[in-house]
Amino acid sequence: MAYFIEQRLALYGGFDYTIYMKKDGKRSVVFKIARIAILCYIGLCAVVFFLQRRMIYFPTDARELPAGSTMSLDVGTAVLEISTRQADGDRVLIYFGGNAEDVSSTLPEFAHAFPEHSTYMMHYRGYGNSTSRPTEKALVADAIALYDAVAESAGKVILVGRSLGSGIAIRVADERPAKRLILVTPFDSILNIARRSFPYLPVRFLLLDKFQSHKYAQSVGCPTLIIIAEEDEVIPMESSLALADAFLHGMAEVRVIEGADHNSLSMFPEYMDLLQSAIFELDEQ
Length: 285
Hints:
- The longest helix is centred in the first third of the chain and has 40 residues, at 17-56.
- The chain has two domains: 2-54; 60-283, Alpha/Beta hydrolase fold, catalytic domain (Rossmann fold, 3-Layer(aba) Sandwich).
- Helix 9 links the parallel strand 7 and strand 8.
- It has ten helices and eight strands.
- The protein has helices at residues 2-13, 17-56, 103-113, 136-150, 164-175, 190-197, 203-206, 214-217, 237-246, 269-283; strands spanning 70-74, 79-85, 91-96, 118-122, 156-162, 180-184, 224-229, 252-257.
- The protein starts with a helix and ends with a helix.
- By secondary structure, it is an alpha/beta fold.
- Helices cover 46% and strands 16% of the residues.
- Helix 4 packs across helix 5 (164-175).
- It has an eight-stranded mixed β-sheet, sandwiched between helices.
């Protein structure tokens, strides 16, 4: 019967049904592949969206620290652990660490290098013994709360931010007075870094914590030192330089430590030399 219909169509309409069926089959395969590709793309976007904060924040484990080396800061929505070393005088140094940094391990080096400064290092939400979960909005608010708690009577406040912490320190410097801002392996924007890492995804709409430091740089009114690792494999040098360009002319100084990468930077003697030079220069003023 089917053969008879095909013959009638060919005889009266010049229509080759077998060719049509072949073409229709090819279209069906193409549409199926397209649907699968679209679903995979949507799935990838969903994975990035729901897991993005796990890609940004790597909380450190809670551990018992020596008595007198920490203080608690209740900010209402969280109780923050602050590693601290007190010193006489009115000089204060506030440090914001990297996204996987246990700042309690960083404190001794800074305490030794800057014995005349009271030093405060914030354990981000979810890090160490700090409660709650980290978000950009919460961390910036926490940092300002820490500044307000410890810098009220300080004569000289120095803000230091490393990697993720650079995006927090610059926000504090934008909203509160500081004598000097030091940014270590900083970025212009996590959004821009994400665009480089996922050029095929609409990260502008997916990313919740954009940390757009370049938008606040021009408002910073204190001398700023930017320290870059020459071989940084996490934050491209062009990202750090783009941030430097966003400051007012003459406000930011850039120094590059040759041979250093993102994590080994602090192991180079030049790192602490640069920090001490910038801070001691301020003390002499």
